[in-house]
Amino acid sequence: xxxxxLSEQEEKQLGVFRFFSERPGxxxxxxxxxxxxxxxLAQFLHEYTDQIGTDDKIAQSSLLVKRYAFLAVISLxxxxxxxxxxxxxxxxxxxANGEKNGxxxxxxxxxxxxxxxxxxxxxxREEVAxxxxxxxxxxxINAVKQVSNLSHxxxxxxxxxxxxxxxxxxxxxxxxQHARGRMEEDFQWLxxxxxxxxxxxxxxxxxxxxxxxxQYVAEQGSELRVRKTCCFSYKLRGGERNRCTTCPQTxxxxxxxGVR
Length: 260
What we know:
By secondary structure, this protein is α+β, with helices and mostly antiparallel strands. It has two domains: 2-211, Transferase(Phosphotransferase), domain 1 (Orthogonal Bundle); 212-260, no CATH class. Helix content is 45%, strand content 12%. It has a four-stranded mixed β-sheet with strand order 2-8-5-3. Strands 1-9-4 form a three-stranded antiparallel β-sheet. It has a two-stranded antiparallel ribbon with strand order 6-7. Strand 6 and strand 7 form a beta hairpin. Helix 5 runs antiparallel to helix 6 (121-148) and helix 5 runs parallel beside helix 7. The protein is globular and about 45 Å long. The N and C termini lie far apart (48 Å).
């Protein structure tokens, strides 16, 4: 791979996924290497209780993992759409504090934002997946487990829903049709059980176990992939209005009436 840069247009597109091209103030930044350490994570959750919107440790941890899923989205979008590879090592990443519509909505700042042009896509694809999942998100999930006892299953579904969302959404967008073949191939590859080792010490792919057909949910009036686990968003300040549209507590409970 050859060292390159993200174009201004690429940075703008990644900004939709909370990629910060400008460095925020130091008070707004938390090193990723602090968050993959259980003591550092516990300190962070304590300090950011008000911003997160709950003092419930499980809900805090679950929301952090949901927000952190966008690091994978940024990395995978860069690879599949732009055919470039970013450095997502914990040493290179900062979580940048942010807010949107009254909700805690952090983003990511890369100390070194340089990318690498991809030539050997098969080899690079393994590197990209291993670096963002096994070497970064898995340590975070382990730290979360130690701090709050949040299930690995909930953490991985929190990540999976955004991976599915970005691949299934981008592939339909006109501006990304030039990369449609790459996106479809990368997405199917990412779900294969033989790649489970790229996510951690797993025998089964932790993303694939949550990939299933969508079902019509009458209460939402659309086809949805209902979650298997609850992410506890309803425990945030604001309560029920924060529930996911795919929450199993509201979709599956009403299945006889609303789902076919």
